[in-house]
Amino acid sequence: QVQLVESGGGLVQAGGSLRLSCAASGSIFRVNGMGWYRQAPGKQRELVATITRGGSTNYADSVKGRFTISRDNAKNTLYLQMNSLKPEDTAVYYCNAGIKLRIAWPESDYWGQGTQVTVSS
Fold first, then answer.
1. CA 88 – CA 53 distance, rounded (Å)
2. SS3 of 89, please?
3. What is the mean pLDDT of each run of 10 residues along the chain (121 residues)?
4. 20 and 85 in contact (C-beta within 8 Å)?
5. Rounded CA gap, 6 and 29, in Å?
6. Quick check: 101 and 109 in contact, CB under 8 A?
7. Residue 109 in 3-state DSSP?
8. d(Cα 67, Cα 57) in Å, to the nearest integer?
9. CB of 86 within 8 A of CB of 76?
10. 67-98: burial string, b at 16+ Cβ within 10 Å, e else
11. Closest CA to 80 of 106, 120, 109, 114
12. Among 105, 108, 111, 106, which Cα is nearest to 35's?
């Protein structure tokens, strides 16, 4: 079974930094696009950043210049470096990955369990 295991969330003061990690494990042929999403209480889940297997990135306007998404394909691991954190960044952060289990099977979407990020003012 494929699992996405997240780590690195926690409580930080405004202006501080956190680094989130997401490790994909299991019987995997290839991990394609990956991304981070977040959901605050009472709000819809929103895109934070995405990265292709080749390293092309996209960011939500709200995090541009502060967050950096990266990946290590050899380790099937996704990262999110979060700097200059603001209280409005407080949310549950979810890892997402498009994964092929077999060469002849289509890609499926997988989600991590989420990790809480809380930024105090």
1. 29
2. helix
3. 96 98 96 98 97 98 98 97 98 98 95 98 93
4. no
5. 20
6. no
7. strand
8. 11
9. no
10. bbbebeeeebbbbbebeebeeebbbbbbbbbb
11. 114
12. 111
Task: Look at residue 78 and give its three-state secondary structure.
Answer: strand
Structural tokens at position 11:
């409580």
The maximal CA–CA distance of the chain, rounded, in angstroms, is 50
CA dihedral 77, 15, 41, 76 (to 10 degrees): 0
Tokens of 78: 């996704």
pLDDT computed for residue 92 by the predictor: 98
Q: What is the pLDDT of residue 23?
A: 97
Cβ–Cβ under 8 Å, residues 47 and 62: no
